[in-house]
Specification:
- This protein has about 45 residues and is an all-alpha fold.
- It has one domain.
- About 95% of the residues lie in helices and about 0% in strands.
- The model has no long low-confidence stretch (mean pLDDT about 80).
Length: about 45
């Protein structure tokens, strides 16, 4: 039981790190697009 639980936790953490890496890459891209599109959205809301 403990051995399988340990492997489940190890698999979870390895998958979690992969997800975190993908998320960090996505947020870097999202921040970049947000910076680019932000002036456009502010001008649209005013007009």
């Amino acid at each position: 039981m403990l051995r399988t639980y340990g492997t489940i936790v190890a698999d979870f953490f390895s998958g979690f790190t992969i997800v975190l890496k993908k998320l960090s890459a996505f947020f870097k891209y999202f921040e970049y697009t947000e910076i680019v599109s932000f002036p456009l959205s502010t001008t649209k809301s005013k007009g």
